[in-house]
Amino acid sequence: MINVTILAFDFVLPVALMGIHDLLYFAGRAQSDNQGQRFNIRIASWDGRPVTTNNNLTLTPHCALQDIAHSDLYLVPTIGGEFERTLTQNPQVVEVLKAAGEDNSIIGSNGTGALFLAEAGLLDNRIATTHWTAETLFRERYPEVDLRSDQPLTHDGSIICDAGGVFWWDLGLYLIELFYDQATAANTAKLLMVDMDRVGQLSFSPLTNTKYHGDKTVLAIQSWIEEHQREAVAIDMLGKKFGLSSRSLIRRFKLATGLTPLNYLQAARIESAQRLLLRSNKTIEQVTNWVGYDDVSSFIRLFKRNTGLTPSSYRARYKSIRSQDSSL
After folding, report:
1. Please, what are the domains in the chain?
2. Residue 209 pLDDT more than 60?
3. Spatial separation of the C-alpha atoms in residues 1 and 225, rounded to whole Å
4. Among 192, 153, 188, 182, which Cα is nearest to 170's?
5. What percent of the chain stands above pLDDT 90?
6. Which of 60, 210, 241, 272 sits at 20 to 30 Å (Cα–Cα) from 204?
7. Confidence class of residue 306 from pLDDT cuts 50, 70 and 90?
8. What is the spatial distance between Cα 312 and Cα 112, in angstroms, rounded to a whole number?
9. Dist. CA 246–CA 234, nearest whole Å
10. What ranges in the chain are assigned the alpha helix state H?
11. Tens-digit pLDDT profile for residues 74-123
């Protein structure tokens, strides 16, 4: 089983807490291989005491945080109350997250829950996102964080953040794909009547963050790059294919996505490598060649620069958790 701990604290937003809980729970009913629940989900608070949500509901957790020796995944729901007061009155959450970081657990946050991660120092020199209402405080209080508040979901190393609001759906479906498979994520969305277009954009969705724009030509170029990522791609060839000069292509592509076309190609190849590492037994050399690179050493350095882990470490961290259930 994959042990999941959802942190409960005073002034938590209850829909974010219970929403992610229910989404992960229903993955067990929607999974593609019919092998039973893989998430062991616990809502935990300090000393196991009931917490008061931001709208004055009382929520009783499953257990005390102190009773959890190890969790594969910790999730921090959004702060529904005043940010600084919530951080000040829940110092135990920060300490638990620090310990989880040292234990190499995967840690996710919904919206302003990322403030707890930043307070614990887990986001220093990492990419993260949060709800727009916390952006000013976040930048002032945590200048070492590479905050991307325009992105709905970020994944940097062992840290996954979403931008709040209904994006806990994205976070939950992303985790279901990561620890089950894409079909189970799609089935879960269908079961709970979530927009299926959202699920179609999962598949290690950091690249999805670059598709929230209205330039149809750039979207077409992005799709073409993803479909032909194993091939050698030249800017002048792309320009001719889509009726743009090389200079216009680069300018327009970067304006829409924040990346150059070649950066996008690189990111697409890294994401494909991530999937292969988790879902196949290919060697690192085979993965390198499959995604379009020839030099294994260069690919390893590139992969680590983009994910914070070597390919071997990435496979060990995520595939080992997926494999804890013998049915995986």
Report:
1. 2-200 (3.40.50.880), 213-328 (1.10.10.60)
2. no
3. 37
4. 153
5. 57
6. 241
7. confident
8. 32
9. 10
10. 14-30, 83-89, 91-102, 114-119, 135-141, 168-179, 182-191, 196-200, 216-227, 235-242, 246-257, 261-279, 284-290, 296-307, 311-322
11. 999 999 999 999 999 999 999 999 999 988 889 999 999 999 999 999 99
102 Cβ neighbours under 8 A, 6+ residues apart: none
Q: Are 247 and 286 in contact (CB under 8 A)?
A: no
Q: What is the mean pLDDT of the chain?
A: 86
Structure tokens at 33: 């291989």
Task: For residues 223 and 237, give the distance between their C-alpha atoms in angstroms, rounded to a whole number.
Answer: 15
Helices vs strands, H then E, count in the chain: 15, 11
Full-model pTM? 0.66
User: Hey, CA dihedral for 260, 261, 266, 270, is it positive or negative?
Assistant: positive
Q: What is the DSSP letter of 33?
A: S
